[in-house]
Amino acid sequence: MVRAPCCEKMGLKKGAWGPEEDQILVSYIQQHGHGNWRALPEKAGLLRCGKSCRLRWTNYLKPDIKRGNFSIKEEETIINLHEMLGNRWSAIAARLPGRTDNEIKNVWHTLLKKKLKPYHNKSSQDSKRHSIISNSKYDPKVLENSYLSTTKDDVTSSQQSGSSSEISSLTNSPIEKMTTKNEKMDYSSENSLHINESFWSADDVNCLNKKSKAKVQSRPPLNAMETVGVDSKIDDSMDFWYNLFISAGEMPEF
DNA sequence: AAGCTGTTCAACCGCCGACCT
DNA sequence: CAGGTCGGCGGTTGAACAGCT
């Protein structure tokens, strides 16, 4: 079976998205939800393939995306999770609220890989840590299943069932709070966000690095989250995961 | 100021699994 | 069960930018 390419129609636009396209996409999703991605561009009046629309939305336009530099804690979390999960960017992203897999992948390939080079060769303690983690007892799958399975779905189901004490103990976690907040977002409401001059808060722009600032200022404002509030929640959630690792009692203390 | 090189990151591509008919 | 569609994922690319000479 040979699969037809996603953008087989001629005349579909490729490359960087313009402000008008962003506006159209955001407005459409706010009003109708994304529904079928493939059908969306035609309905919304965009000369893009559905895949491109989905990517643009999930990686850039979605209201709960946190932009700007990664905090030290976030970087450490990525390093630790990468060590356990490998290049499973979406799984890592699921544990970093407001960050996309694409963004994490980029950060890994640009920043963290370099930072890790000296780190990996640094000390015997590090080698010990690596050997412990690569030991079958710390099989990524096992680790993930044991300690990291508190995905959005799990939290949601635990909220519904309320049966597992283990899971229910997580319901007050920052992650849960974030998830709940995100799930409650209603893109079709009249309170939903519109791209205009006030879309970016000053904090949004200030927290960006120099390069991003330049880009952002030449683009429509996009971020939707109240950055200050989200920052504190993300810090909390990092603590949550660290504590979870440690309290599991089997993880070596890094 | 101009040219070159390295870095960043948004976007694309191809593949895969889940689901539907 | 086969064939087709769809959403999602990870790898890769290339334009834009920063920094250096």
UniProtKB/TrEMBL annotation:
Residues 150-185 are annotated as: Disordered. Its main location: nucleus. Residues 9-61, 62-116 form the HTH myb-type domain. It is found in: Nucleus. Keywords: DNA-binding, Nucleus, Repeat. Residues 9-61, 62-112 form the Myb-like domain. Residues 157-173 have a biased composition (Low complexity). One of its GO terms (cellular component) is nucleus. It comes from the Eukaryota. GO terms for molecular function: DNA binding. Transmembrane segments: none annotated. Transcription factor. PANTHER family: MYB FAMILY TRANSCRIPTION FACTOR, TRANSCRIPTION FACTOR MYB14. This is Uncharacterized protein.
